[in-house]
Amino acid sequence: MPAKKLWDKGYSADKDVEEFTVGDDYILDLKLAKYDCMASIAHARMLGKMGILKQAEVESLVAELKRIMSLAEKGKFSISVEEEDVHTAIENTLTSRLGDLGKKIHTGRSRNDQVLTALRLYYKDHLELCIALAERFTDSAGKFSSQYGRIELPGYTHMRKAMPSSIGMWAGAFTDAMQDNISLLESALLLVDQSPLGTAAGYGAPLDVDREFTASELGFAKVQDNPIYVQMSRGKFESTILHSLTQIMFDLNRMACDLILFSMPEFGYFELPDSFTTGSSIMPQKKNPDVLELLRAKYHLVVSYEMALKGISSNLPTGFNRDMQLTKGPVMSGFEVTEASLRIASRLMQELGVNKANCKKGLTEDVYATKRAYDLVKKGMPFRDAYKAVGKKYAGKK
Predict the structure, then answer these.
(1) 152 in the same domain as 84
(2) pTM across the whole model
(3) Long-range pairs for 11-18 at CB < 8 Å and ≥24 separation?
(4) 292 and 264, same structural domain?
(5) Which of 212, 204, 145, 153 has its CA nearest to residue 176?
(6) Which residues are designated catalytic?
(7) Do 139 and 82 have their domain in common?
(8) Using one digit for the tens of pLDDT, what is the confidence trace for 301-317?
(9) Alpha carbons 391 and 385: distance in angstroms, whole number
């Protein structure tokens, strides 16, 4: 027997149309099964509080939803193409096992507020995970700085030696950057920590649902009041999330660029652990910084997700539009790439080495030219004259 669709009116969609409209939702939605069950449990309890469901019915629904959650966490819950999404798969399971009681769970809600609620619970979990991973990175960078921070090496501008720097200054730049990124993640978390449940398809439902109750049950900080804005915020909130992720990846990209360059034998300031390199299939001497090259490239992936999402969610009238279905994938992929990148970057900082001798060797006398100019300033010479006096030594040099 074909899977029952929540919108079933007695006719079947064309097979090609069905596959086109479903896309990869039936795969992506497996990541939302836990969260959709959580929201359904809160909704069932609210319906019981309103008297629409009897207490025994609430208990039966909650028990079955918890069973589905357990199956999903073990990878034993599936969604067919015919079911379209996780919401349909869960309701079909409830109806199959509980009969008419399963048909009551959708009272007072739509798939629109259902998916938004599940997504926001998913976002909250992953934003909190990203914050924890970013903090782990800053901790690893801090320990790296404690070990090697006093070692001096050249600082560069325009890819040329400029002034003295240090390992501590270099590592500290990425620690400070990640602290700012954590602030961005926290801002994104503040935005998504609003419950959309009870707004139905964007215009409420002809039922006096207790939105405060479900928001509290699900651990949301507040209720998102205006039902039209609930739909408008889809895409806007996701864009904020992806922007915060691109900022993390931007900094990891810059770090990777530095380490690829300054671990080259021609510089040799940093020493990559062998376990973070790969070899060549033809050149037996090669130890390639593939991890860093991929870390550098993955920034561009997350930027592409942000641009795709902003494009998909713009130029739409108020109210729900099916275009928004295509915003799930970019956000989920953005989280996966960023989380994996933060994990590998933290491990790298724990195992990265510094070659003190090469750093000292890199501190050639030209690196101290600015200091010499300021030594003259301290003796009373105007800075511009001191600048010219020291600069004469390097005139004509490349």
Answers:
(1) no
(2) 0.93
(3) 18/81, 18/82, 18/84
(4) yes
(5) 145
(6) 158, 280
(7) no
(8) 999 999 999 999 999 99
(9) 10
